[in-house]
């Protein structure tokens, strides 16, 4: 498999690591750094580059002309796949959750997908939920009309995605004690943890309500690497009611963080991560001297909150 990422322009790797001065950390003797994965590629939002590039290599190597993947109406992964297809000259098909969206004006995220040439195929929620079953998946693919597509799962988290994310951990070796990332499917955390040295800790902050993520992440690590690693854990307290929910307390935190540091705080994932780390620091969770790194997976303001797609 080639290690040359096929996309243009070239990704910015390793992503920059920036120290931040924030007294909510420094008064506990803790340093906070930002791992700026949002700066890796202008067209592929945040960590999605790391999750996609080995899949793109595999698709091209196997002669596929079409990428097919799944997502909700505000999925960053759908947008990244559409952009990758445009850059590579491949067709893309997005299977979108919610057949009630068909024929309605597209939201900004799906508008961008369509502008990048992605064909959108809307399916009802129960069929969408069934897509982990091979037969349901096969019939969804058939119904989409895609010919011999390379299929990437929802959120882009498969074994190649996890392997692609190990580089995130490797870039942080010797540079941090705890590396933290917001989790959707957990694929990024699974890979990052595996790339860190065994004495470095990875912390995941799930942005969805449910508490189902731990077994998923272990399974992803098993499939990608042969065995789960023991150096990560989740703190499930910071989902704020569920995906894309931004209650006033979280919005106020994010606005204040932007004022303090001049960093636009993406609301769906990054705000919850930064809130969680700040709370953990103020609770005294990190021993003095701890270097904490927050992986900034996106900086653009979130598209308007997903009103009708708060569950998955
Ligand atoms: C997709 C995404 C994540 C979560 O990645 P997973 O690998 O699904 O856990 C985090 N932040 C942003 C901005 C994302 O788009």
TrEMBL record:
Gene3D superfamilies: 3.40.50.1100. It comes from the Bacteria. InterPro entries: ACCD_DCysDesulf, TrpB-like_PALP, TrpB-like_PALP_sf. Keywords: Pyridoxal phosphate. Residues 14-297 form the Tryptophan synthase beta chain-like PALP domain. Its cofactor is pyridoxal 5'-phosphate. It holds the Pfam family PALP. The keyword Repeat does not apply. Belongs to the ACC deaminase/D-cysteine desulfhydrase family. PANTHER family: 1-AMINOCYCLOPROPANE-1-CARBOXYLATE DEAMINASE-RELATED. This is 1-aminocyclopropane-1-carboxylate deaminase/D-cysteine desulfhydrase. It comes from Streptomyces longisporoflavus.
